[in-house]
Protein backbone atom coordinates (compact mmCIF):
# COMPACT_ATOMS: atom_id res chain seq x y z
CA UNK A 1 0.00 0.00 0.00
CA UNK A 2 1.26 3.45 -0.87
CA UNK A 3 2.44 5.13 2.34
CA UNK A 4 0.55 8.32 1.47
CA UNK A 5 -2.71 6.39 1.18
CA UNK A 6 -1.96 4.52 4.40
CA UNK A 7 -1.30 7.81 6.16
CA UNK A 8 -4.53 9.28 4.78
CA UNK A 9 -6.76 6.40 5.83
CA UNK A 10 -5.08 5.66 9.17
CA UNK A 11 -7.35 8.01 11.17
CA UNK A 12 -10.39 6.48 9.48
CA UNK A 13 -9.25 2.95 10.30
CA UNK A 14 -8.49 3.93 13.91
CA UNK A 15 -11.99 5.41 14.18
CA UNK A 16 -13.43 2.18 12.75
CA UNK A 17 -11.52 0.11 15.33
CA UNK A 18 -12.83 2.30 18.14
CA UNK A 19 -16.40 2.15 16.80
CA UNK A 20 -16.28 -1.63 16.39
CA UNK A 21 -14.93 -2.08 19.91
CA UNK A 22 -17.56 0.29 21.31
CA UNK A 23 -20.20 -1.78 19.50
CA UNK A 24 -18.82 -4.98 21.02
CA UNK A 25 -18.85 -3.45 24.50
CA UNK A 26 -22.52 -2.59 24.06
CA UNK A 27 -23.48 -6.19 23.39
CA UNK A 28 -24.03 -8.86 25.99
CA UNK A 29 -22.11 -11.31 23.83
CA UNK A 30 -20.52 -11.15 20.42
CA UNK A 31 -18.73 -13.11 17.74
CA UNK A 32 -15.18 -11.75 17.55
CA UNK A 33 -14.70 -12.99 13.99
CA UNK A 34 -18.05 -11.86 12.59
CA UNK A 35 -18.41 -8.66 14.59
CA UNK A 36 -14.81 -7.46 14.41
CA UNK A 37 -12.29 -9.52 12.43
CA UNK A 38 -14.41 -9.64 9.27
CA UNK A 39 -15.65 -6.06 9.54
CA UNK A 40 -12.33 -4.24 9.97
CA UNK A 41 -10.66 -5.40 6.71
CA UNK A 42 -13.85 -4.65 4.78
CA UNK A 43 -14.06 -1.15 6.22
CA UNK A 44 -10.36 -0.61 5.52
CA UNK A 45 -10.75 -1.80 1.94
CA UNK A 46 -13.67 0.59 1.47
CA UNK A 47 -11.50 3.48 2.68
CA UNK A 48 -8.61 2.39 0.47
CA UNK A 49 -10.79 2.10 -2.63
CA UNK A 50 -12.90 5.13 -1.79
CA UNK A 51 -16.13 3.15 -1.46
CA UNK A 52 -18.88 4.11 0.92
CA UNK A 53 -18.64 1.78 3.93
CA UNK A 54 -22.31 0.94 3.46
CA UNK A 55 -21.24 -1.11 0.42
CA UNK A 56 -19.05 -3.44 2.47
CA UNK A 57 -21.67 -6.20 2.59
CA UNK A 58 -21.97 -6.21 -1.19
CA UNK A 59 -18.18 -6.27 -1.51
CA UNK A 60 -17.92 -9.07 1.06
CA UNK A 61 -20.59 -11.15 -0.67
CA UNK A 62 -18.94 -10.82 -4.08
CA UNK A 63 -15.46 -11.52 -2.70
CA UNK A 64 -16.68 -14.66 -0.89
CA UNK A 65 -18.51 -15.77 -4.02
CA UNK A 66 -15.33 -15.27 -6.03
CA UNK A 67 -13.22 -17.28 -3.58
CA UNK A 68 -15.88 -20.01 -3.59
CA UNK A 69 -15.71 -20.20 -7.37
CA UNK A 70 -12.01 -21.06 -7.51
CA UNK A 71 -11.49 -24.15 -9.60
CA UNK A 72 -14.36 -23.27 -11.92
CA UNK A 73 -12.91 -20.84 -14.46
CA UNK A 74 -16.23 -19.81 -15.94
CA UNK A 75 -17.85 -19.15 -12.57
CA UNK A 76 -14.69 -17.41 -11.28
CA UNK A 77 -14.65 -15.08 -14.28
CA UNK A 78 -18.33 -14.26 -13.82
CA UNK A 79 -17.94 -13.52 -10.11
CA UNK A 80 -14.83 -11.42 -10.76
CA UNK A 81 -16.78 -9.40 -13.31
CA UNK A 82 -19.62 -8.93 -10.81
CA UNK A 83 -17.11 -7.61 -8.26
CA UNK A 84 -15.54 -5.36 -10.89
CA UNK A 85 -19.02 -4.08 -11.76
CA UNK A 86 -19.33 -2.74 -8.21
CA UNK A 87 -16.20 -0.69 -8.89
CA UNK A 88 -17.55 0.56 -12.21
CA UNK A 89 -20.80 1.57 -10.55
CA UNK A 90 -18.84 3.49 -7.90
CA UNK A 91 -16.81 5.33 -10.55
CA UNK A 92 -19.96 6.27 -12.45
CA UNK A 93 -21.65 7.42 -9.24
CA UNK A 94 -18.60 9.55 -8.40
CA UNK A 95 -18.79 11.21 -11.79
CA UNK A 96 -22.33 12.26 -10.96
CA UNK A 97 -21.61 13.18 -7.35
CA UNK A 98 -17.94 13.46 -6.34
CA UNK A 99 -17.11 12.24 -2.85
CA UNK A 100 -16.03 14.71 -0.25
CA UNK A 101 -12.70 14.12 1.44
CA UNK A 102 -12.82 12.85 5.00
Summarize the topology.
Elements: H1 3-25, H2 32-37, H3 39-49, H4 56-68, H5 73-96
Q: What does this protein structure show overall?
A:
It is a single chain. The chain has 102 residues and is an all-alpha fold. The protein has 2 domains: 1-49, no CATH class; 55-102. It is built from 5 helices and no strands. The chain has helices at 3-25, 32-37, 39-49, 56-68, 73-96. It is globular.
Radius of gyration: 16 Å
Q: Describe the biggest sheet?
A: none
Q: What multimeric state do the chains show? A: single chain
Number of strands: 0
β-sheet strand percentage: under 5%
Number of domains: 2
Q: What series of H and E elements makes up the topology?
A: HHHHH
Structural classification: mainly alpha
N-to-C CA distance = 19 Å
Low-confidence stretches: none
* Tally of helical segments: 5
Mean pLDDT: 87
Anisotropy-based shape: globular
Helix content: over 70%
What are the salient characteristics of this protein?
about 100 residues; mainly alpha
What's a quick, concise take on this entry?
This protein is an all-alpha fold. The protein has helices at 3-25, 32-37, 39-49, 56-68, 73-96.
Amino acid sequence: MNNDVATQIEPLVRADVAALIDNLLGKGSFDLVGDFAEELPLLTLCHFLGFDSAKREAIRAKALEMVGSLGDQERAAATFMALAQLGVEEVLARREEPATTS
